[in-house]
């Protein structure tokens, strides 16, 4: 079974993140890039599936040159090869355009399954998986907390507020994963040292057959009009218990629409 | 407007930008160990230190094995075959958490595994190295005795031939991981001088007793090994070992890891002090704003960077095949002392908080007392360097 894992490089959530004042896009040079956390779970799941069913794991990353650091880490975890979709024309693409571009890049690859994290820690739209499946015309199995493959059948547990749904489809398919699915491994030193010998193919927009009139900041369907820093945390509310503390606490929660 | 030609201000945590000179692969190994250590070890280490043990040494060994850190600088037999600098970086990042955890890795990789790798037969290598590399087995290294420390040539442990067998008698002391090991590399005097033996710890007559009431390296298991008529087959002898030079060459490997490791301990203390000084207010302002504090911080950052430079230089020499054991002695002599100065200063800057386990500084400070003692005390390295520069031995 050949699996493609979509890996996005995002700014490290431990460092300060900035938007660039020129065009309201993320300033990716301002902070260290790391693999989007949920994508590490996607890589782990792909490696587990490969250990069980054989085949190859390919990393597909769309992002600027420095995303090679994240590609190398994914290869150090055990992926076999990588494709790096990199082109200035893609700068500023929104979630829909990203899904379109990725679908074109996937068109150059042979795969049975695409695995990705269910959202990224930077943009947090959570729609790339679904949009991608639409572009590819493949079944989408989102928010997977467990994945089982049996022949051509794939079955997942889809995490919900009330527990989970069991969803099934036929391969090829697109699966997005949530955190509880596994515990991502650390890269091993042996694999770190092999990583730079593994093939990483660079793909331009033209190589992937991407229509550049459809991607990039100028052609995006959405626009970041303005941004403001998060307001400082307001002081908390202190409830003094004078026999009615419970009622006051419940009223407070109801007012904030928590209950 | 910022002047684009002006070089960026130094990073307080890597002042001389030493890590900028690392190769990609070296940085990846550094990041992996740092990430692993901060997520999996740091949250528990104060608890382990307080308990005076590592509660699950087998689990820890397995995790280290999965990472690939055991014998990572050795070739073949399941070892990663990384560079000396990469191994040093791993030691640095582990010891930034605790010297005891770095000791676990040093003893397994640089003492037990290196001894087998250097002096073992093909059969011994195949039997032990892959399991030790994977962390499925734990090894220890028994050289020191109750009455023989700095002068290991005076050891009393004897191995005598009895037909095809060897019979070992003696006591080893201060042996890291002795009571959790599957195999002990034991050094013993024979009619042919000092030689090494692989002793499976379930051999009759072998007993390991854990040493309690340590005030240093508490997140590490230290033991006494008692060998009473331990009968071993002829194949237990490390055939390549001959004379005191054999165990000393292993110690040189482990010492190399210390040269780097203590840079991590020093950096951790300095980073904690910097953070504490910025937030602790006395006399109407942060203590970082007082001249005496700034002097301490300036000396700390100097020590951390000079030690870091020494480690990197010794590492590059080692990778070039040009590292003499006196280079390593110089590194151990200078870097351990530097780390001790940094740890003491950091301890003092933390005031009363500094004597607790809520902060890492005193834990590092007392750990470094062990690090200054094992693998050759400060005095022994001073004597080695003195001999190297004068040509005169002053050991006796
Ligand atoms: C926590 C811990 C773990 C250890 N783990 C191991 C292990 O895994 N395996 C192992 O084999 N050993 C281990 N050791 C032992 C360690 O290597 C010895 O403690 C060390 O070699 C010093 O020996 P000693 O303690 O007998 O001190 P001694 O040799 O008795 O030294 C006492 C003092 O005398 C000084 N001294 C000695 N000779 C001279 C001289 N010629 N001139 C001037 N001063 C001198 C020393 O510098 C020191 O200050 C460990 C020790 C500790 C504390
Ligand atoms: C075990 C123990 C028992 C104790 N028992 C008692 C007790 O019974 N009763 C009691 O009242 N207290 C007690 N203390 C508290 C002790 O007196 C304080 O810890 C001490 O006064 C230092 O204060 P601090 O810990 O708040 O450190 P801080 O005052 O915060 O000092 C932190 C660091 O900043 C430095 N610093 C502060 N100001 C300056 C400056 N202007 N210029 C340069 N450097 C500066 C300090 O020297 C120190 O290095 C005890 C402390 C301990 C550890």
Can you put this structure into words, describing what you see?
The complex is a heterodimer of chains A (about 260) and B (about 400). Chain A is of the alpha/beta class and about 260 residues long. Chain A has one domain: HUPs (Rossmann fold). Helix content of chain A is about 25%, strand content about 25%. In chain A, the strands form two sheets. A nine-stranded mixed sheet of chain A has the order 9-8-7-10-6-1-4-5-11, sandwiched between helices. In chain A, strands 2-3 form a two-stranded antiparallel sheet. In chain A, helix 2 links the parallel strand 4 and strand 5. In chain A, helix 2 crosses helix 5 and helix 3 packs across helix 4. The radius of gyration of chain A is 21 Å and the shape is globular. The N and C termini of chain A lie far apart (about 45 Å). The mean pLDDT of chain A is about 90. Chain B is an alpha+beta fold and about 400 residues long. Chain B has a four-stranded antiparallel sheet with strand order 2-3-7-6, covered by helices on one side. In chain B, a hairpin with a 2-residue loop joins strand 4 and strand 5. The longest helix of chain B is centred in the middle third of the chain and has 35 residues. The termini of chain B are far apart. The mean pLDDT of chain B is about 95. Chains A and B meet through helix 2 and helix 5 of A and helix 1 of B. Bound molecules: flavin-adenine dinucleotide (2 copies). The site of one flavin-adenine dinucleotide has 12 residues of chain B, from helix 7 and helix 8.
CATH third-tier fold name of chain A = Rossmann fold
In N-to-C order, the SSE pattern of chain B is HHHHHEEEEEEEHEEHHHH
Strand line-up in the sheet with most strands of chain A: 9-8-7-10-6-1-4-5-11
N→C terminal distance of chain A: 46 Å
Low-confidence stretches of chain B: none
Helix content of chain A: 25-40%
* Estimated share of beta-strand residues of chain B: 5-15%
The major pleated sheet of chain A works out as:
9 strands, mixed
Number of helices of chain B: 10
Rg of chain A is: 21 Å
Order of helices and strands of chain A: EEEHEHEHEHEEEEHEHH
Q: How many separate domains make up the residues of chain A?
A: 1
Q: Structural class of the secondary structure composition of chain A?
A: alpha/beta
């Amino acid at each position: 079974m050949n699996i493609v894992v979509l890996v996005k490089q995002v700014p490290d959530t431990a460092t300060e993140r900035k938007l660039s004042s020129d065009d309201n896009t993320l300033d990716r040079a301002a902070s260290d890039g790391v693999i989007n956390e949920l994508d590490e779970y996607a890589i782990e799941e792909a490696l587990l599936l490969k250990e069980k069913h054989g085949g190859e794991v390919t990393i597909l990353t769309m992002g600027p040159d420095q995303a090679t650091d994240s590609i190398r880490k994914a290869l150090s975890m055990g992926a076999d090869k990588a494709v790096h979709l990199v082109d200035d024309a893609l700068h500023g693409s929104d979630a829909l355009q990203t899904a379109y571009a990725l679908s074109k890049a996937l068109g150059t690859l042979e795969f049975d399954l695409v695995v990705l994290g269910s959202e990224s820690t930077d943009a947090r739209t959570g729609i790339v998986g679904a949009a991608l499946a639409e572009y590819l015309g493949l079944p989408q199995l989102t928010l997977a907390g467990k994945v089982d493959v049996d022949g051509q059948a794939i079955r997942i547990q889809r995490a919900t507020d009330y527990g989970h749904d069991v969803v099934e489809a036929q391969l090829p398919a697109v699966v997005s994963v949530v955190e509880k699915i596994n515990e991502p491994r650390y890269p091993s030193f042996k694999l770190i040292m092999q990583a730079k010998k593994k093939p990483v193919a660079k793909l331009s927009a033209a190589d992937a057959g991407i229509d550049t009139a459809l991607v990039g900041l100028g052609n995006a369907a959405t626009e970041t009009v303005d941004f403001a820093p998060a307001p400082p945390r307001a002081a908390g509310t202190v409830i003094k218990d004078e026999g009615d503390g419970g009622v006051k606490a419940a009223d407070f929660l109801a007012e904030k629409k928590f209950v | 407007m910022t002047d684009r030609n002006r070089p960026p201000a130094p990073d307080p945590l890597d002042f001389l930008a030493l890590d900028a000179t690392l190769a990609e692969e070296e940085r990846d190994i550094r990041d992996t160990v740092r990430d692993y250590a901060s997520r999996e070890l740091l949250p528990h280490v104060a608890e382990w230190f307080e308990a005076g043990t590592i509660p699950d040494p087998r689990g820890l060994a397995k995790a280290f094995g999965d990472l690939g850190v055991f014998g990572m600088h050795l070739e073949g037999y399941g070892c990663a075959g990384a560079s000396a600098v990469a191994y040093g970086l791993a030691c640095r990042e582990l010891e930034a958490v605790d010297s005891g955890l770095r000791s676990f890795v040093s003893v397994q990789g640089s003492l037990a595994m290196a001894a087998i790798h250097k002096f073992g037969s093909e059969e011994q290598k195949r039997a032990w190295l892959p399991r030790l590399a994977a962390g499925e087995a734990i090894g220890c290294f028994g050289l020191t005795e109750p009455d023989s420390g700095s002068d290991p040539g005076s050891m009393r442990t004897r191995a005598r031939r009895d037909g095809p067998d060897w019979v070992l008698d003696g006591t080893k002391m201060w042996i890291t991981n002795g009571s959790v090991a599957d195999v002990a590399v034991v050094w013993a005097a024979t009619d042919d001088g000092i030689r090494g033996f692989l002793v499976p710890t379930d051999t009759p007559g072998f007993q390991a007793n854990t040493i309690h009431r340590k005030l240093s390296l508490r997140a590490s298991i230290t033991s006494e090994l008692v060998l009473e008529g331990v009968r071993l087959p002829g194949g237990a002898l490390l055939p390549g070992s001959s004379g005191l030079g054999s165990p000393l060459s292993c110690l040189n490997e482990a010492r190399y890891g210390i040269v780097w490791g203590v840079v991590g301990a020093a950096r951790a203390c300095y980073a904690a002090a910097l953070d504490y000084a910025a937030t602790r207010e006395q006399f109407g302002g942060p203590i970082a704003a007082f001249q005496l504090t700034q002097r301490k911080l300036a000396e700390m950052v100097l020590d951390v960077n000079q030690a870091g430079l020494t480690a990197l230089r010794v590492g590059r020499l080692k990778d070039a095949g040009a590292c003499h054991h006196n280079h390593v002695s110089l590194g151990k002599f200078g870097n351990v002392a530097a780390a001790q100065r940094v740890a003491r200063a950091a301890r003092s800057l933390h005031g009363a908080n500094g004597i607790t386990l809520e902060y890492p500084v005193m834990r590092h400070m007392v750990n470094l007392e062990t690090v200054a003692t094992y693998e050759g005390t400060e005095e022994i390295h001073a004597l080695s360097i003195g001999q190297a520069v004068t040509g005169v031995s002053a050991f006796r």
